[in-house]
Amino acid sequence: MVIVDSPVAASYDDLQSLPALFEAVSNGTVPERGSSWQALRALFQATEVGLVNLGELAAAAVNRLRAGDEPGATRCLEWMVGFGRVWNELAWLVQDFSPLGQEDGPHVLAVVSSPSWRHLVNVERELAQELKPLAESPSAVQWKRHVLRYAMLQRASLEYSCVDGAPSGYEDFVRPEAVREAVRERQLPGETVFMQFRAAHQMPELLIQVVNDHLERAVDALGHAQEQEAVPLLRRADRLLDAVVRMTDLLVDQMTTEEYHGIRVALGLTSGSHSVGLHFELMRDLYPALARKSQDGSREIQHLTRTIGLHIDRWRLGHINLPRTNLGGAETGTRSLTGSPDALQTVARMREAGRSRDPYAQTERPFRATDWTSEAPPLAEIERRLLGDVARHTQERFRDVQDRTGRYSGSPGFSAPPKRCPNRPN
In the prediction, which pLDDT does 141 show? Predict the structure, then answer.
């Protein structure tokens, strides 16, 4: 673990410790690309990311309770509920992808075998000791609801995070220690949500790598008129993408504007749009290739392709909430870290550009979520006022970003990667 001064990293990959995460994926028992076991491995590894964060959050709650900071501890518990929901989603997919019998291998994979789970158990026991005297109070406090919600999410997730028939044991198959090292590779001093911010990107990146392998195999199968081979690949990709979309809620629901501002200065000239797996391999290359190949396919193939495209659109729309609630409204001129002159408008245009290239997208829409000036939503006026306040606060607090001075005067230096589908037309 390295405690770093700002900025943390000069690139998106380094910011999220993706090289270390993908190194963990490349070692141990590595299942065939596009297989159900590859998907299961990624689900367990994403779960490991969540477990490490839960351990950190529980420890922070303990420290804050011991310092008499009950509101601070409650905030940690709120974040634990968010990670509990993500774990629940991942655990359900573990069951969904599980083999019907033990024909694949002799091993059982279970989160209870994880060192990160054992660490979490110890920290949560300390948390329980701190909460016990508070729980005896008859007062109605918010933390009680958070504890009850998280405890039930954990119960269900723990049961579902188990699968028979694995080709090797948990340590070799999941590589929990290597995942833990990657999660803790970079940290900021003080009490911030930097680790949680990174986790909300690390977990989807692990799943997207598998989605892309599935889609590449499906495109190849369709190119050889092998629809029956493409169907299970597209079904798993569909389910994994649904989970990726849901993970956007972790930051949207949990991270406050002030919490984001507390880490923004450390992020450097980076952007989520620099994600190779998500923005370039999936959105630029693989989905367009799949959309073309599916045009002459069966109705099932076309429906699965359309759903995958809808998940991508859902992700884009959900991701709009991050610049919206943390940087401010449209046409306020709030710049992104990489210099976009109006961050919210830039992201909205990216969504519309993606839809315009999608043959399955509905073209006629009586209302668009990014029609920021529309009065159709009853709370539109209040929304604009609130987002205007966020924009003013953001621009005043980050003048160097706004004026492109200091380290923000240069270019991010990012260049698009080679095409994953070489035959994709320009």
Answer: 80
